[in-house]
Design a protein that fits this description.
The structure is a homodimer of 425-residue chains.
Chain A lengths: L10 H5 L4 H11 L4 E2 L12 H12 L2 H7 L9 H15 L12 E4 L1 H13 L5 E5 L4 H9 L3 E5 L1 E2 L2 E2 L1 H13 L6 E7 L12 H13 L1 H4 L4 E5 L25 E6 L11 E4 L4 H13 L4 H12 L2 H27 L5 E2 L7 E5 L11 H8 L2 E2 L1 E2 L16 E5 L5 H18 L1
Parallel strand pairs in A: 1-13, 3-4, 3-7, 7-8, 8-9
Antiparallel strand pairs in A: 2-10, 5-6, 9-10, 11-12, 12-15, 14-15
Helix pairs in contact in A: 3-12, 6-11, 8-9, 13-15, 14-15
Chain lengths: 425, 425
């Protein structure tokens, strides 16, 4: 009878595709000699084993705080960590006490990734539209696809989002009667994954103002989901304030931050700053997911922040990534054909390279195969573009990470890739 | 213009109610002298601060394993922890090597709670029906409500699920044409939350057989989601094999287990054993949630299991909860009116008490208010029943936890509650 049976899987499960990156990871594992410039992993050598060990020891050596750390916490997160997080953001944004940065608007999450998922759950029904940067973070595109949402790409300029194009997209959606399906603009605002671009504060404030003008036609608020995952991986230039600092717009901003990337990715503690009614909705949904992020990890972060170990580590990372980025920059200058364009990196983990039109980078391209034959892996740019009926996906770009590869492997990897590029350019 | 605007919240968010327990928790926090027999927290005094500290120290003292623990892992979880988990289950179920217990069917999750959520996402669309025990775990009911599912309650007997009633419910759903919406039976099979009842292996096997008979009419597989969260909190009697051990039915069983409750709830590491196509679907969805449970927690559990610390702790907990349950049993015998019925506990964290009909226990009842005035809190039974049009919710029961209260507070709490009961019985 089995052959007559349909699947019991939900529509969501049937929509959920294998993540594009899983094939890349499997390829990496299967070829131990391969140099991966694809992985978004952070730098291994700088992971703070000593700081975490010391924090753990201090937490667990006395029975009372030790036991508290090993017991359940509350869904919203440890109250002191929420306070420290609010203070941390006020410091980064250089603002005084403001209700937008109150500890009770902070939710502690399992990495910032969990907040992206919860935000999508809380705001979007199947068929709804999210505006994303073109290109954008591919795991967010996975959420969009899995949850039956549609994405519309907004072009980027050197200083971030192309506001004229954002207006154009919104106007076109208004004309076609689809504006009522638009719930949010997703923006990876600092050292974007994949391009490395930072959207200026002025542009974020302007984007919020623009979105507001379309709310009447939409019939509901349109939110800005600011993904600041790479914010503290800055090694050049000045920090930009977050969208929370845009006067009068904080009730439209969902800020997603993380302590994992700038400290230890194995700890997976992120946070959100949310306005009502989203704070309540997202907290309730998180209660159903896991009723709170592992308390021991929260206590460890709290301890690392309060003791100054966290800030010290962020400073060390700054020097480390500045160096690794310089190594990649030098190798790109030396080994890549001049026809390949790339911008300098000021933070984050990535360089983004644009090849001449016609030179394809996709997993089935000759270039990708040649790179693989030379044991070097990159992320094809195609994977970072939403399915958007309004444009074809560019297929001549690549994301190159200096996060996890060693300096020697960065040099050697770019050299091999440059050689492969030479055959096709 | 704000007054014209509708909410941007999704249907899911608008459905998601405040968890009933949040009011109870807020009440507890607001009254520091209150004795809570409501919380599902585990015993504070037995939390393994030493074992976790030692494991952390051993993991983090050498750079190589230390850094690996602080780096991202894979979505499915640490390969060695998956192997240890498979072996652990084979040991508990007393079976040899079988493909149903293979490491590659194991998924590591953020507590077993996350697996419950992921399973509901992967199997159920809004409008689908899940069969639950009557009463059942109220956070699962929160998932059901939030995701727009409908629940049907199946009565329980002393040795678990009432199979005749399960058949009756399935027949009634078939007659009304709703069987095609039935995706799963959710069973808290060991020392159930809230009743403390364990469903025998024979009954689990019989339930699987029965469900299979309705698959043809349903048009798709009907799964058994076995929530074994309390399995290792056993302090009397013998263990029952899991539903995975039922010959020929493992492709219909989702097993949800946890290392948090029997070790440290602040660590939040659970696991699932899943058949295809659910394993793939659930793993992909988890990738979108968090791309893997915090690696440091996984390494800690792996270390605690491999070193024997985990098993040693489970043995200590057995003695500890046996004692605390004996304290509550003694107090119930001494202080509760004879008209109140309750069964002996052999594991888990709870006693379940049935008051004479007409004596209500709900949050608005005179009894609940009298208990609160005497500074003692319980979970009203009402909260543990699904909204099921086929029956009225019993309102004369209460869940009493001996998990987190001290022995002295268990005695004093039951004494106060007995006194309050005396006024109404």
């Amino acid at each position: 009878m089995l052959w007559r049976m349909k699947t019991a899987l939900s529509e969501l499960a049937r929509r959920t595709a294998a993540p594009p990156i899983s094939w890349l990871i499997a390829t990496t594992l299967a070829r131990p000699k391969l140099i991966s410039l694809a992985a978004g992993f952070t730098d291994d050598a700088s992971l703070p084993t000593r700081a975490v060990r010391d924090s753990m020891h201090e937490i667990l050596r006395s029975p009372k705080p030790g036991r508290a750390a090993l017991q359940y916490g509350s869904t919203a997160g440890d109250p002191r960590l929420r306070e420290l997080t609010a203070a941390h953001l006020r410091h980064l944004d250089d603002v005084g006490t403001r209700k937008e940065y109150a500890a009770d608007r902070v939710l502690i999450t399992g990495g910032s990734q969990q907040l992206l998922y919860l935000a999508a759950e809380a705001l979007c029904d199947p068929g709804d539209i999210v505006l994303v940067e073109d290109p954008t973070y591919f795991v967010f595109l996975g959420i969009v696809q899995s949850r039956g949402l549609h994405a519309r790409g907004v072009r980027m300029e050197r200083d971030g989002l192309d506001l004229a194009h954002l207006k154009q997209v919104l106007d076109s959606l208004r004309r076609s009667g689809q504006l009522r399906r638009v719930k949010l603009l997703y923006l990876v605002s600092y050292f974007q994954n994949p391009t490395g671009i930072t959207t200026s504060f002025a542009k974020k404030a302007a984007a919020l103002k623009l979105l507001k003008q379309y709310e009447h036609a939409a019939g509901h608020p349109i939110y800005l989901l600011e993904d600041a995952a790479y914010r503290e991986l800055r090694f050049a230039g000045a920090d930009e304030p977050s969208a929370l600092a845009a006067p009068g717009f904080a009730n439209r901003v969902l800020y997603a931050g993380t302590y994992s990337k700038p400290f230890a990715t194995g700890l997976r503690v992120g946070f959100g700053v949310l306005p009502e009614p989203l704070l309540t909705a997202v907290t309730r949904i998180k209660g159903n997911h896991d009723f709170g992020t592992a308390n021991l990890l929260q206590q460890t972060l709290k301890h690392a922040i309060a003791s100054g170990r966290y800030e010290k580590h962020v400073g060390e990372l700054e020097r480390r990534y500045a160096h690794k980025a310089a190594v990649m920059r030098g190798a790109l200058e030396k080994y890549f054909p001049k026809a390949v364009q790339w911008d300098d990196a000021h933070g984050g983990l990535y360089f983004w390279a644009r090849l001449p039109r016609g030179v394809k980078t996709g997993v089935k391209s000759k270039l990708f195969r040649a790179a693989l034959a030379a044991d070097v892996l990159y992320v094809p740019g195609l994977l970072c573009y939403a399915d958007d009926p309004a444009r074809a996906k560019p297929d001549n770009e690549m994301r190159l990470s200096f996060g996890s590869a060693s300096e020697a492997n960065i040099r050697e990897g770019i050299k091999r890739l440059g050689k492969a590029l030479g055959k096709f350019i």
